[in-house]
Amino acid sequence: MRNRRHQIVTVLITVLAVLLCLGIYGAGLQKGLEGRAYDARVQLAGTLGLGKGLASGQVVVVGIDERSVIVEKPLLFIYEDIGLFLRRMDEYGVRTVGLDVILVHRQSEKLKNAVAAFMAGNAGGAKTDMGRVMEEVGEGLDRSVLGPIMDVSERVNIVQVVHGDMVPFYYGVSPFIKNMVIADASLTDGGRTGNDGVIRKQALGGGGRPSFAAALYRLSTGRQYGRGPVFLNYALAGSIPFYRLDDVMDGGIGRRAFSGKTVILGYISGYEDVHATPLKRDIFPADQVKRDASSGQPGSGRMPGPVIHAIIAETMLTGTSLREAPLAVNIVILVVLAGLSFAAISLMRPFPAIGAIAALAILFFAVNLFLFSAGSYIHLFPQAAAPFVVAILVYPYRYLVEERARRKVEKIFGYYMDRNVVDRLLKAGPEALLAGEARDVSILFLDIRNFTVLSTQREARRVVRFLNFFFGAVTERIQEHGGLVNKFIGDGLLAFFMTGENPAADAVSAALDVLEETRRLDDEGRFREFVGDWQVNIGIGIHRGEVILGNIGSRRKMDFTIIGEHVNIASRIEGLTKEAGVVLLVSSDARAAAGEVFPWRKAGEFALKGIDRPILLYTVGET
Known about the structure:
By secondary structure, this protein is an alpha/beta fold. The protein folds into three domains: about 100 residues; about 270 residues, no CATH class; about 200 residues, Nucleotide cyclase, GGDEF domain (Alpha-Beta Plaits). The strands form six sheets. Strands 15, 16, 17, 18, 19, 20, 21 and 22 form an eight-stranded mixed β-sheet that branches. The chain has a six-stranded parallel β-sheet with strand order 4-3-2-10-1-9. A hairpin with a 4-residue loop joins strand 18 and strand 19. Helix 8 packs across helix 10 and helix 18 crosses helix 22. The longest helix has 29 residues. The protein starts with a helix and ends with a strand.
């Protein structure tokens, strides 16, 4: 009953561990660990070559290297460069141009205001003339980009990004620009409150607008992307074509690189629109963009926004976004892992169980990584922690309650048998052994013949020393075969066997070794100092049957022993050894259980007190 109660308590503790892990989900506490675990899987899959890294080839990135632009000319002339780029893309026959740049200012107003500030205090006429001239220059710059947009959009799809309230100066006329789509430039996974800023997934839209990559996908394929959010496949980064704007405008990159494709134009710098990614390295194909212009921290895994948008679009085009397992599936996996941990704790000793739990966690990670690289995203936390949480909660209870009972049994059994035998015996559970149970055992009774005569002829201290010496040697032989020396009864002993593969065979083997050890000690004269020339003879009886095993006695004195009819039969069989003229007798039940491994010989049928019919007994060889 107590053992059952302990099992129920252990199950309840396991359920508590599962609820604790589910509480981690509910409180969102797993996000930090799961985010790091996600990044580790991205990196490990890339290192092992498990990711799907072949891009569709339909997306091209063109980077505006702000540092080189500033060196060569004022940044305000980028308006004209963008306009010329749009016309070049129209000439090359691109399908879609994505403008990941926001030309916020009208250059006409900006230059006019700059001149006004510069000319403050000068003659009014000169200030007005200069302002008019600069305004005309600014209007020319504005037209240099707006004109191509209006013209090229007749034949080419254009996706213009906006970011919150930051919109291009021509935003007001965008509804009238043919084939222009306004899209949200936000990288949602990195911008959410509480997020660590690493871009792992992207929503398909926000604020009533499609995301930049979602708009590019729809215009490139003519259909809406069916699922969201999109988990970025960073393995594609190395195969996305990437060029510098200067190289494109100088004619270094030909038509074939752009014809029929989607081209993303954006700023490439190390200080603006640069975002953290799960990678620990920077990837820019063919070194088309100078590394010092692409990342302020080489090897940091940070990437410019246009490159990340291209990865998102390619992930959608190649259909390689991860499929996140539903919450219910993650919970089922958590429960299964906790259950397996509970099973290991229940069936194994602590150290093997902890090893099994660690192996379970490693196996779960390996399977998780394989599924991750194949496109299925199952959370690693708190699932991987669940087996250890179960162990952390269960083992203190097991140690305080169950191990205390085990240590009590070990102390009791330690007087009778070898520690290895104790360990095998306790697999049945210490509580059952302490409380008492019915067990099938093989029983061995041993008696020293004619010892009463000897005890009257020798000094008491010599008799005691002889018994201690003799029983010490006998006990070692019995324990070597997995036997439990239960008690010493005057000049005899009671032992039983129940833990080996064949307890009956173990009992017979132990008896033969005891007989051989007795002959050896007698031949070597080891008994003479105790009993002189007296010949030491013994008789052994072996029987097999079901007995009651447990602690028997009172509060003041307890004795762990076996009782029952078969114990009495074994004792009476030993008593027949003189009548049979042999030193070893084995009942037919014990002989059948031991098998044919011994040279059996019939000793005859004998009547036993309390037994209705004669019992057939055997001996071994010439014993």
